């Protein structure tokens, strides 16, 4: 015998304004196929990044009570907390080309030093990651009496480096990007969100879940349900979702107008390779959670989830 009782608690409407925050090119590439799937921490299947299914839904939360036979009962509770990051780490990328290797390194280091000085970034808050050193070849035609062939001739070098910047004030991000562009550093690779105290957050979520489980059992006892157990078992799972994995693509209905950039010129055509690239912060929906802490955060947040499932084997009478 299988019986499922769902108790609707409340319907709470939130008016949300979702603002996209620097996700970086990594988010574009990871979403480029517009279609990926994942299994969340409770085994539910959800489809991500489908342009036609990006609508936001918030439904009533619910208790999940399942009695699979006369003696076994399952009760589960899910909780979610939106948490503001304590620290951010932005990764910028740059490359430099020159005819000789020494000059290539000098120009790269000069651009990085100038950027850090203009942005006022201390040495303790930055790490420069060396990525690659690549020779550049040109193909030249080699003429012989009876044949012609092309040979590769070294012409220069390319150096690539990434700049890792740590900051706590989100307002600094715009300043860093402006100073980076001033020094011809345009590649924003990604922005990581760091939360320092995971333990306290999970303890809070666990406590809230246990309180709701106890309230659930108390409420059903008032209806005559007896939970006198022969034994009980508990299953617990938690997870953490970062904003970088929650950006979804969308198609804009407004065409790009470059008239302000070209003026009255008729023989100028501007090409923007990123014109069709649009993403927005699409956080985990609330419709499958019983408990939501800090539900109305405007900025992208780190989302911590807790799942507790209680198994009760009743005494036979």
Walk me through the structure.
By secondary structure, the chain is α+β, with helices and mostly antiparallel strands. The protein has 2 domains: 3-84 and 196-314, no CATH class; 87-194, 2-Layer Sandwich (Alpha-Beta Plaits), CATH 3.30.70. 20% of the residues lie in helices and 39% in strands. The chain has 5 helices and 14 strands. The protein has helices at residues 25-30, 101-119, 172-182, 198-221, 259-262, and strands at 3-8, 36-39, 45-48, 62-67, 72-83, 87-98, 126-143, 148-167, 187-194, 229-241, 247-249, 279-281, 291-293, 302-314. Strands 1, 4, 5, 10, 13 and 14 form a 6-stranded mixed β-sheet that branches. Strands 7-8-6-9 form a 4-stranded antiparallel β-sheet. Strands 2-3 form a two-stranded antiparallel ribbon. A hairpin with a 4-residue loop joins strand 7 and strand 8. Helix 2 runs antiparallel to helix 3 (172-182).
